[in-house]
Amino acid sequence: MIKYRKFNFVILLLSFAILLFTIQCLGQDEPDPAETEVWEPEPGIVTPGNGTNPPSDAIVLFDGSDLSQWTDDKGNESKWIVKDNAVTINPETGKLVSRQQFGSCQLHIEFRTPIEIDDEGQGRGNSGIFLQGKYEVQVLDSYENRTYSNGQAGSIYKQHPPLVNVSRKPGEWQMYDIIFNAPLFNDKGSLKNPGNVTLFHNGVLVLNHVELKGSTVFTGEPKYEAHGPKRPLELQDHDNPVSYRNIWIREL
Questions:
Q1: 8 A C-beta contact, residue 213 and residue 65
Q2: In which region does residue 213 sit, left (phi positive, over 0), alpha (psi from -120 to 50) or beta (all else)?
Q3: pTM for this entry
């Protein structure tokens, strides 16, 4: 009986030892959650704007008051018309060019095509937003106005049609929110990384990280031409009195 009790006690000790060893091994195999915690760098604080108002780190290019941040395409004072917190194209006076140059960015811009309709297709409310002065996001009155799909509102002109058409009626304000990753070039001028664009039109995703094929051209295939990392933003004068307002940009 005594030998039997000693045997049970030994078994109990061995079981306890095996249990402790198992717990220790499991503890060693279980990763520490702190190993995957990243504390530095700490993201900076940016105060978001209300509605379409700019966040605290945005560069305001047009707040409705003047064109001090812009010139015409010859570097002179623009002849576009500032009225009622908007700027409207003065046909045949040339494009609007930002004084500051930008690379990759987040751009918010609101536009309004004319309420009076006197043409169709590409002749109706036509303008354009040229990222780095080379890559056009098309502005057009595409409300019940059929044209080629890669030339309607929300397209990368002659490259990518929008996923859907969410154009509002003529005379109603619309907005674009654009994420632009600028192309990169090697020291000798060859393309290193193509650019890409994501576009929300009136809050709806219409271009999802589409790759730019090159500079915008009207005829033929687009191709890249080497340029610096930053260039001006340009708004096109296409002889239609399209209006813009609330233009701000965040450098990425």
A1: no
A2: alpha
A3: 0.87
